[in-house]
Amino acid sequence: MPRELKEEIELKHLSPYATKSRLSRGRRRRQDDCPVRTMFERDTGRIIYSMPFRRLRQKTQVFFNPRNDHICTRMEHVIYVMYLSMTIGKALNLNQDLIQAISLGHDLGHAPFGHAGEDSLNKTIKEQGGRFRFQHELHSLRTVDLLAEHKSQPGLNLSFEVRDGIASHCGESISEYKLEPWRDKTEAELILGAEEHRPPATLEGCVVRIVDRIAYVGRDIEDAYRAGLMSFSDIPLHIRAELGDSNSAIVNTLVLDLLSNSYDQDAIVLSEARGEALRELIEENYARIYKADQIIAYENMVENVIKGLFKAFLAAAQGQFSTSPEGELALENFHNFLKRHPEKDASPIRKVTDYIAGMTDHYATTTFNSIYQI
Known about the structure:
- The structure is a single chain.
- By secondary structure, this protein is mainly alpha-helical.
- It has helices at residues 3-13, 39-48, 51-55, 74-91, 96-105, 114-127, 136-147, 160-167, 190-195, 203-226, 237-243, 247-262, 272-290, 293-317, 325-340, 348-357, 361-372; strands at 149-150, 153-154, 178-179, 268-269.
- The strands form two sheets. The protein has a two-stranded antiparallel sheet.
- A hairpin with a 2-residue loop joins strand 1 and strand 2 (153-154).
């Protein structure tokens, strides 16, 4: 089907609150339209063919380097978010192509080792005198705007709507039950809005933001059960009564609740009862999983690796670090990255952050071991 016909169908048949491809605010660098694919379909292709997307399969969701192959990775999480978000988008008659692109791109900027890696990077940046914070959603925007490549040029040159959905996918509060799009958000407000955790500019972006939590809360309990930390029977009875006692039941309950409260509205809404139960369940996960001794021990290991890599690469960037022959290859790879870095006037701390944030768990640990000969 030609692109123009697809766009006409969108204009006639999508919800009045849906984002129409033809009305996109466009790309930062102007490009000719594709005769077949809409703006957001092209964005999806650029994301899934990018190197940062490929690396998601070896990045931690919660559990690092699991012996069990069924433990969730960042790649699987992204696919779950995409599937659930598109299911909701279809039911609400929203733009599924936009939802797909945002979902697939929302975690491209995650550091290795999940949120433990993000926390360790932030701590190390501050200790080294950096004047910025590492915020994975903003680094996802930096990745698609600058660090990933498309046709040998810096950045994937995605549409405003996809970039906005990626940058604003992370909410500050787990008590966020209703999301109304910030429709008049400007390009200049993208970064500030993300720093303040303000809503996305589109209803499709709001779907992905809420689904991001729905997708991980029950799945993390499944992984915790395999790790011997928690099972669904440990969830307080009143939460199970409200949401269900399995991942599939929890997802089904929350999706149906969201749909029944969001039809014909310019907002994505969970009922207060289900939203409060979701908040309590996330708090249970924090207490039983994310703050468990096993995870804390893992976080200590992560901090050592991140700090060690940062110290080595920052010194290498200033020509002040030497290592073993095995470690020299790691430093050579880093120097090649510096030569290709698209932001020549960026500080060494920023460039080192970009390099480490792009690593997989495996590459980070093997690089650390080669540099320090462990």
